[in-house]
Each structure stands twice: as C-alpha cells, then as structure tokens.
Amino acid sequence: MNKPSFKQDFSHQFARVFDTQHFHAPKNFSPKDVDIIKRAVETNMPLYLEIGAGKGKHAMLFATANPDKHLIAAERTAEKFAAFAKLATGLNLPNLTHVHADAIAFAVHHLPPASLDGVFLLYPNPEPHNKNQRWLNMPFFEFLLSRLKAGASIVLASNITSYIDEACELLQTVWYLPYQKSVIDPQSARTHFEIKYLARGELCQELVITKPDNYRTHFDATPAKWGADEV
Predict the structure, then answer these.
(1) Whole-angstrom Cα distance, residue 33 to residue 29?
(2) What is the number of other CB atoms lying within 10 angstroms of the CB of residue 74?
(3) What is the pLDDT of residue 150?
(4) Complete DSSP assignment for 16-33
(5) Which of 10, 31, 165, 231 has a CA 20 to 30 Å removed from the CA of 175?
(6) Cβ 101 vs Cβ 76: under 8 Å
(7) Which long-range contacts (CB under 8 A, 24 or more apart) does 61-64 make?
C-alpha cells in the first residue's frame, strides 16, 4: 500500500477530529472493574475490547478459550446486557469484564493510549441511511486506533458486502492501514447474528485491520486517567 505524502503530522487523512468532551463517564461501571482493567494493563496481560457484545456469545467463547487474555465486552442495550450479564456471572470468567455502557464513552474515560491488543466489531449496524455513523467514517475511529498497541488488530465482520467494500476503500485511501480480507467459514458460530446469517446462506466477510508501528493520531499523548471524569 503506497501512502501519499501530505503536510499534517498524522498517519491518515481523516478530516474530522473526535471531541472527547461530549462524552460523560459511564454510570454503570464500577471502581472494581476499573481496577481490573488497570491491573491488566500494568501486568501486560493482553487486553481486548468488544464493541456491541450483544448477549455475549463471542465474549464468553473468547474468554473461555483464552484464559491468558482479558476481554472487555461493552453492550449498551439494557435487555441484551441483562441476558449477557446473567450468563457471564454463571460462568465466573475472571478474564471477562462485561460493561453496560456506550463503548465510545467507555473508551474515552477508561482506556489509556496503546493499551489494547485487539478490538472486535462483529456485525455492527450498517447504518444504511447515515454512512457517517459507520465505524470507519466516524471521528471516534481515530481515537480507537490510538488506544491500540502497535501491531494490534481490529476485527470487523459483516454480512453486507457494500459495508466491507466501503471499509476496504477507506482503509486504503483515508486511514492507510493494512488489512486482510477473508470469507467467514460457514460453520463459524461466534455470535447469534453470525449463526443466523450463515444459516441463510449469506456471504459473511471479515477484515483484520492491523495498526503499524509508529502510526500517529491526535490522541497518542493523551494521559491515562483511571476512572477520571474526563480524558
């Protein structure tokens, strides 16, 4: 991928800058959970974030299969989160933190720069009537990149071909990020949506987006403030 030269001292050409001041700290996030995440960062335990975890199927599978990694799974819908929390509590997975909160507000207030080893965006809402609400069209995406370690990845999965195609174009022409595109195995069962889409015979695809070394954003120097009211 050949990145053209440009004047600004950043690794991308996304024009809008994310404003962290618009997001209040999540009310349902406990000091205990803050301490768990802080310890994971301080001990270099691999830390992952799932945005829109739904009823938690992927989150619980991931935490069970990877006891050496810690996953924060955020879901803002009350009904879905209640079902998720009930199942997760029964499993008692110490490496899974389930968060009832908007993932953007959570990231702003509780994730320091270069703290994440990976992010999962599994079957996000395609926002057919407002493309500016799709993840790679949002200013928050730059902030999210700043929370990733060098070499960390974002996994984006969708059953909508146009969503994947648009993401590929933006990765090449705006974000200048390397990625691998693949077709998801028909037997995969990471989320309830994935099971439903594959059972219908729909094409499900996945992008694994990697943050290169020395990738620069507006937010790299933002200090970590554990449990603070603002970044």
Answers:
(1) 7
(2) 24
(3) 97
(4) ----GGG-PPPTT--HHH
(5) 231
(6) yes
(7) 61/190, 62/120, 63/93, 63/95, 63/96, 64/91, 64/93
The whole-model pTM stands at 0.91
Parts of the chain with a pLDDT under 70: 1-8, 221-231
Look up tokens 């996994």; give the residue: 155
Q: Which residues are CB-neighbours of 121 under 8 A, at least 6 positions away? A: 51, 52, 135, 154, 155, 156, 157
DSSP state of 172: I
Smallest CA-to-CA distance from 226 within 98, 38, 46 is with 38
Centroid of chain to Cα 110: 14
The CA distance from 74 to 108, in Å, is 13
Q: With contact defined as beta carbons under 8 Å apart, do 37 and 71 qualify?
A: no
Per residue in 60-118, pLDDT (tens digit) is 999 999 999 999 999 999 999 999 999 998 898 999 999 998 999 999 999 999 999 99
